[in-house]
Design goal:
The complex is a heterodimer of chains A (368) and B (332).
Chain A lengths: L2 H11 L2 H11 L1 H18 L1 H4 L20 E3 L5 E13 L6 E24 L3 E10 L17 H37 L1 H16 L2 H10 L7 H31 L3 H8 L4 H9 L4 H25 L10 H6 L4 H6 L5 H23 L6
Helix pairs in contact in A: 2-14, 3-5, 3-14, 5-6, 5-8, 5-11, 5-14, 7-8, 8-11, 9-10, 11-14
Chain B lengths: L1 H27 L5 H11 L6 H10 L6 H13 L5 E2 L4 E2 H36 L4 H15 L2 H16 L18 H38 L2 H8 L4 H7 L1 H5 L1 H5 L1 H19 L4 H10 L3 H29 L1 H5 L6
Antiparallel strand pairs in B: 1-2
Helix pairs in contact in B: 1-15, 5-6, 5-8, 5-13, 5-15, 6-8, 7-8, 7-13, 8-13, 13-14, 13-15, 14-15
Chain lengths: 368, 332
């Protein structure tokens, strides 16, 4: 066999999953998106370890400190291991604003695997180990600090944990709702279909943000933060399931007349078995695409609600809660690093969109 | 055509009823009613509230009656243009809403127009020159527009204009026109401020439309009639614009239904950031102070507008595409 034939044979032998993966790999942006999503979820999962400080640790001497500059050359121009300078409070003569100045006499080397703030890792064990830190009394604020002197880098990591998990949880809930209701609607047809379709249409008539605002504002203010978190997730998925239900319904209508469904019915399979064992597996890939594209809108919705002050509230830190600090122009103009959480939101949303796009092109490996 | 419109109007009625029930439920969701808030506020000011006064107020507003009677009363008043009373502002809700809704509509339609004007040429170009570097560039910019939520975009723009241009871009009117009656000068002033929210809200949808038009046009360009037209020697510009583009831009009309709620959502939150005198900020403050009569009125009216917008888009679509008038319309 020559090379072309081998390639041809490999293509013919490949499983559907492999074909999808090959096609997906060709999509450069989708691969980049996949890497970023991996990175984001990794950092969200291990944020206690990756963040140099705990999310609530206040550095009273460094309020609104600007991002630390990491240097490798000292004053004399000699190459050193990466370090940061100590910061001293200073008043800008022109604007009379408090700012921080680097003190070149104090060099604090950046070290890996240092002990710092204690944390409980996934509520499993206690540890003080952090990926990186600087020699005390130095401090490292990669993204600066906020009005309480809390490290923005650490808070961004903790915040993306909450925001990303809301995306996952919310999509999971709407997936369950969408599968059940879309399944009934598409498989049963008749009055159940009409009823569910009408409900979907009505839900889609509402401008989502005002509706979310209304539902979120109805939560009593004294609720525990965790309860608010779950209720917000439920509110988001109450609107989000409609897209999934439509996909499921459309696919079921197209597939329910196929011969393999008839065959399954003849051998006495029940409706639930036909739906979950035979029909749904045949369009899992489409569901995955829809889910991938639904996660970013959940993340955005949470960010929007928390930003407006009717979603999550501190002590829970999400990206939206972080951005709430950056609500007015003067704050942004003086402390632009408070906008950094925006980058996390944008990267998350972009990555999911790229991955969803790549998947959509790849799920049908026999086309073209 | 007439029977189609009548059928659509009849379908609208249950939808509107359902929307009103949901809006009413939202009004009722917070614990207590507006009288409890009212009493609490007066107590906080150090005034004592006579229980008999509360009771008479309760009777006057019908709060002692069962929920469905209250709903029917509310819906009946709504039909007569009485949306209740805002306790925060101590004014009828309808007058508060009347101030804000027109500007929301103006921004929505300008945004819709903007997205169409931008996305159609770009969509056509990137479909005809598929995989050219311009196509990649436009797709990438479109993606960024899609990924940046409008309020974040507004924030960044605020910061940029403040830090580098030294001006503040909030609001819809210059200070001197804020209280002035409507005149040509005021309208011009409005137009000068309008483009900022329009661009901010519009970018996300422009990206979406570019993708829809590009995808549709790519499908159309592969069809035999295009080859036939080309074989007949039609010029390329005429060939593309006259036939495939007309089919490809169909979704512009058919998606008004779900674009409108998204636009209104986007405007609501952008308006909070940019401090625009539209419905968003007022709704937010109503929700924060639990002024639920006002909030419910807003949610209800915004949804009503959406339903009417959808109706118009359906009629337009039936007018543009005769297949819809007769056949069943399967999910757009």
């Amino acid at each position: 066999m020559n090379r072309d034939q081998k390639k041809e044979q490999k293509y013919l032998d490949a499983s559907t999953r492999q074909l999808i993966w090959w096609r997906y790999k060709k999509h450069a942006l989708a691969m980049i998106g996949l890497w970023f999503i991996g990175l984001l979820y990794f950092s969200a999962a291990f944020c206690e370890f990756l963040a140099p400080y705990s999310q609530d640790r206040r550095h009273f001497d460094s309020i609104y400190s600007c991002p630390s500059k990491i240097r490798i050359f000292d004053q004399e121009g000699r190459l050193r291991r990466p370090f940061v300078y100590g910061m001293a409070l200073d008043v800008d003569e022109e604007t009379q604003q408090i700012c921080y100045k680097e003190v070149t006499e104090q060099r604090h080397a950046i070290r890996l695997f240092v002990t710092g703030d204690a944390y409980e890792f996934w509520s499993l064990w206690r540890s003080k180990l952090h990926l990186f830190g600087v020699d005390s009394p130095g401090k490292i604020f990669l993204f600066g600090t906020d009005r309480m002197g809390r490290d923005m880098f650490s808070r961004c990591l903790y915040g993306s944990r909450i925001s990303l998990s809301i995306g996952m949880l919310g999509v999971f809930l709407s997936l369950v709702l969408g599968l059940i209701l879309g399944g009934i609607s598409g498989y049963r047809g008749g009055w159940a279909d009409t009823l569910i379709q009408r409900v979907i249409e009505i839900i889609r008539c509402f401008p989502s943000i005002p509706l979310w605002m209304g539902l979120a504002a109805a939560m009593p203010p004294h609720w525990h933060a965790l309860k608010v978190y779950f209720v917000i997730t439920i509110i988001l998925s109450l609107v989000g399931w409609t897209d999934l239900a439509r996909v499921v319904r459309g696919k079921l209508i197209a597939l329910r007349e196929e011969d393999f469904v008839l065959a399954a019915r003849f051998v006495g399979a029940g409706h639930a078995r036909i739906i979950f064992r035979h029909l749904i597996p045949s369009f899992t890939s489409h569901i995955i695409v829809t889910v991938t594209l639904a996660i970013p809108s959940m993340v955005l919705a949470e960010t929007a609600l928390s930003f407006l002050g009717i979603g999550l509230k501190s002590p829970i830190t999400s990206l939206g809660v972080l951005l709430k600090e950056a609500q007015n122009v003067t704050t942004i103009a003086l402390y632009p690093w408070l906008l950094i959480p925006v980058l996390f939101v944008i990267v998350t949303v972009l990555s999911f969109n790229f991955v969803g796009d790549g998947l959509r092109d790849a799920v049908d490996p026999y086309s073209r | 055509m007439l029977s189609y419109i009548i059928r659509r109007l009849l379908i609208m009625i249950p939808t509107l009823v359902a929307i009103s029930i949901i809006s009413f439920t939202i009004i009722q969701l917070p614990p207590g009613d507006f009288l409890t808030t009212y009493v609490a506020e007066r107590n906080a000011r150090g005034e004592t509230v006579d229980p008999t006064e509360v009771e008479s107020l309760r009777q006057r507003f019908g709060l002692d009656q069962p929920m469905y009677i209250q709903y029917l009363r509310w819906a009946w008043n709504f039909l007569h243009g009485d949306l209740g009373h805002s306790f925060e502002w101590n004014r009828p809700v309808s007058s508060l809403i009347a101030e804000r809704i027109p500007l929301t509509i103006v921004i929505s339609f300008s945004t819709l127009l903007f997205t169409w004007l931008v996305s159609v040429p770009i969509g056509i170009y990137s479909a005809v020159r598929q995989y050219s570097w311009v196509d990649y560039l436009l797709t990438f910019i479109g993606f960024i527009g899609l990924a940046t939520p409008s309020f974040l975009f507004a924030l960044v723009l605020l910061w940029f204009s403040y830090a580098y241009l030294g001006m503040s871009i909030g609001g819809l009117f210059s200070p001197e026109y804020l209280e002035a009656p409507w005149s040509w000068a005021k309208i011009l002033d409005l137009l000068q401020h309008l483009w900022i929210p329009v661009i901010i809200v519009g970018t996300a949808h422009t990206a979406k439309f570019i993708r829809i038009i590009r995808g549709n046009l790519l499908d159309e360009l592969k069809k035999p009639y295009v080859t036939a037209a080309r074989a007949k020697g039609l010029s390329e510009a005429r060939l593309i614009l006259k036939y495939p583009v007309r089919v490809a831009i169909n979704p512009l009309v058919s998606t008004i239904g779900w674009t409108l709620p998204e636009l209104i959502s986007g405007i609501a939150i952008t308006a909070v950031v940019l401090n625009l005198p539209t419905s968003g900020p007022l709704l937010l403050s109503a929700l924060r102070s639990q002024d639920m009569q006002l909030a419910g009125g807003f949610i209800m009216l915004l949804s009503f507008l959406t339903v009417i917008g959808t109706l118009i888009s359906d009629i337009l679509l039936a007018w543009v595409d005769p297949r819809i008038r007769f056949g069943a319309r399967e999910g757009v």
